[in-house]
Design goal:
Oligomer: single chain
Number of domains: 2
CATH superfamily of the largest domain: Cytochrome c-like domain
Radius of gyration: 23 Å
Bound molecules: heme C
Shape: elongated
Strand content: under 5%
CATH architecture of the largest domain: Orthogonal Bundle
Structural class: mainly alpha
CATH topology of the largest domain: Cytochrome Bc1 Complex, Chain D, domain 2
Number of strands: 0
């Protein structure tokens, strides 16, 4: 009987130490959260949303560019121009300042992005009205991405100047 008690006490001790060590790790996590808002390094660079790994988008595909341009005119142009600030930022050089995955997550999950991503929050603080969720498919988002890559290329070829994201950065 006494023997059984020892076993019980020993296993209780083991459990206790297991608990306290998991406490430690959650504290470490919280400390990390202070630095990047609880985001992983991947999320900081590539945004939060359905795109959770790096994509190899390959060469710009002219067929996608065409479809992406049509979607841009229909869904994005009310708020975005390429070379002028409107409701949202000018987008000609967005592929220069953001990763492909960040842009896709912004298109597919704008509400989540402006709520949780420190960079998207900063941009919202400047532009004030949040980007709406447009329920686009990943396919449509990829077409938009190729369109945005193509307009950057055109801008670089024609030396079209970049509109700064923040007013404070304007000359
Ligand atoms: C209702 C207006 C509105 C519509 C429609 C809209 N956007 Fe936006 N967009 C914004 C605003 C405002 C911001 C900046 C503030 C923010 O982050 O929410 C933004 C930010 C972005 C960004 C991030 C820019 C950066 O440098 O961080 C991308 C990329 C973007 N939009 C792409 C698109 C695309 C592509 C479409 C069309 C499918 C679209 N937006 C439709 C208003 C809009």
């Amino acid at each position: 009987m006494k023997y059984l008690l020892y076993i019980l006490i020993a296993s209780a001790l083991v459990l206790l130490s297991a608990c306290s060590s998991s406490d430690e790790s959650s504290q470490a996590k919280q400390e990390k959260a202070g630095e990047g808002g609880g985001l992983t390094a991947f999320q900081l660079e590539n945004g939060i949303g359905p795109i959770t790994e790096k994509l190899n988008v390959g060469e710009i595909d002219p067929a996608k560019v065409k479809k992406g341009e049509a979607t841009f005119v229909a869904k994005c142009a009310p708020c975005h121009k390429l070379d002028k600030r409107l409701v949202g930022p000018a987008l000609r050089y967005v592929t220069k300042r953001r990763s492909h995955e960040y842009i896709l997550n912004m298109i597919l999950n704008p509400t989540g992005m402006v709520k949780e991503h420190p960079e998207a929050k900063k941009v919202l603080a400047e532009y004030l009205s949040p980007m709406t969720d447009m329920n686009l498919t990943k396919e449509q988002a990829l077409e938009l991405l190729d369109y945005l890559r193509s307009v950057r290329k055109e801008g670089e070829e024609k030396k079209i100047p970049e509109v700064p994201l923040f007013r404070s950065a304007q000359p």
